[in-house]
Amino acid sequence: MSDPGTPGISVVICAYTEDRWADVLAAVASVRAQSRPALETLLVVDHNPALLDRLAKEYKDPPDGAVVRVLANAGPRGLSAGRNTGIAASRGDVVAFLDDDAMAERDWLKHFAEGYADPRVMAVGGRTEPVWASGRRPSWFPEEFDWVVGCSYRGLPRGRARVRNVLGGNASFRREAFDAAGGFASGIGRDGSKRPLGGEETELCIRLSRARPDAVLLIDDRAVIHHRVPAARERFRYFRTRTYAEGLSKALVARSVGADKGLESERRYTTRVLPAGVVRGLRDALLARPGGAGRAGAIVAGVLTAAGGYLVGSVRARRGGVTFSVVDVGEGGGRD
User: Fold this and answer.
1) What backbone torsions phi and psi does residue 24 show, to the nearest 5 degrees?
2) What is the pTM of this model?
3) What is the DSSP letter of 158?
4) Taking a C-beta distance cutoff of 8 angstroms, is the pair 198, 185 a contact?
5) What is the 3-state secondary structure of 50-93?
6) What is the C-alpha separation between 24 and 14, in angstroms, rounded?
7) What is the dihedral of CA 58, 61, 62, 65, to 10 degrees?
8) Predicted confidence (pLDDT) per residue in 40-62, tens digit
9) Count of alpha carbons within 13 Å of 199, Cβ hemisphere only?
10) Do residues 203 and 252 make contact, with C-beta atoms less than 8 angstroms apart?
11) What is the DSSP secondary-structure string of 209-226?
């Protein structure tokens, strides 16, 4: 193991489709270009033998000697099980996660590592910037809802600050966090279906804070990644689908950890951040600025569809129509 003051960091990238081949290669390249080198990069392939074989050949003998390990998801289909596979196989004191369609800036891991100088810190997240397929943000798309496309959103704290939870596509955890709380819960988040669920990192972070009340979770907006937003996700149809799915996911999170903690940050976001966004949009509309009315309308629509998803998800949870489980990944087989 590394010196506690300079933790070795394993980076886990979960991949599932050959359609993102160029993106996966770019994500790995961005890790290999870090100013603070990763201990290793683990590519976890989600039940796609063709992609697994292709990536294994691609990284059989990296030219720069970097450690890139290609693994099959050892659990059920889905992002949570893929991440758990990476955690269990990793060797680092810290495990970082990068989306397969994102690229990290050069000092990404450096800023993560700095956060762990305090032994109480169990997780450090970063800032995720959207890279729009059209080249620019759609005029109607409110920054308050950038989480819809997997990016940091207006309302998150700036600088380095304590948070309830980090965002999964740009996050890191001390290995002790998984020893204390277990891994990501299966049954929450992306599972290979077409419905864009989420929330698994929120559930894990709340569970971690309960297991370790002294734990500190940080967000550092200097740890930046750039996340691709395909054209299909720039459309209102996806916006509506994703916000509804988030409501379903939040119902599962609330079922797991209770509504008080499960919706604590969401209450502030809904009562303060979003009303301010509506006012800003209406003001822009009055000033004849492009997209103002559309942004205000999208915020209202997003709230209503998320609320609808939450109600449906809550009913399903009470009826026992959904299940999820937490696996123990603390004693990873990949550790030295």
Assistant:
1) -60, -45
2) 0.91
3) P
4) no
5) HHHHHHHHHCCCCCCCCCEEEEECCCCCCHHHHHHHHHHHCCCC
6) 9
7) 160
8) 999 999 999 999 999 999 999 87
9) 31
10) yes
11) HHH-TT-EEEEEEEEEEE
